[in-house]
Design brief:
It contains 6 helices and 4 strands. The chain is an alpha+beta fold. It folds into 2 domains: 70 residues, no CATH class; 41 residues, no CATH class. The strands form 2 sheets. The protein has a two-stranded antiparallel ribbon. Strands 3-4 form a two-stranded antiparallel ribbon.
Length: 133
């Protein structure tokens, strides 16, 4: 987290420090950061994630999530409104038991509604599971 924000020689610096993303002053102390991390559910299997990718690493903007959840919080994640909520299309496709590329093709290239793309079987008789955000 600190290296990508503070070290211009790192390849990922351009996406963090060069964009102005910083680690908050209070987290410059590892002990303070460690206390926050443990209180917020830190585990070896999780990674730190900024809820708003345009804001800094701060206690109010960070959480511990799985790699899969973090991948859905990227700028290039295809977000849709489904049942009144903003959701990652990949998450909906997974929950419906469909391939993400199938659903994405239906929506982007073929102009289907999200509802139709998620609720139309790929082959006759093969109905997908219900998708929910």
């Amino acid at each position: 987290m600190r290296r990508r924000c503070e070290n211009p020689s790192r390849p990922d610096y351009k996406w963090y420090g060069a964009r102005g993303i910083q680690v908050c002053q209070e987290w410059q102390s590892f002990r303070v950061f460690a206390r926050w991390a443990l209180a917020k559910g830190y585990a070896e299997s999780l990674t730190i994630d900024r809820e708003d990718n345009d804001k800094d690493y701060t206690p109010g903007n960070c959480r511990w999530v799985t790699i899969k959840d973090q991948e859905r919080n990227r700028r290039n994640t295809f977000m849709v409104t489904y049942q009144g909520k903003q959701c990652a299309l990949s998450e909906l496709a997974e929950k419906a038991g469909l391939n993400t590329s199938t659903v994405l093709t239906r929506v982007q290239r073929q102009g289907w509604t999200v509802e139709a793309a998620l609720n139309t079987p790929v082959r006759p008789g093969g109905w997908p599971r219900e998708a929910r955000c």
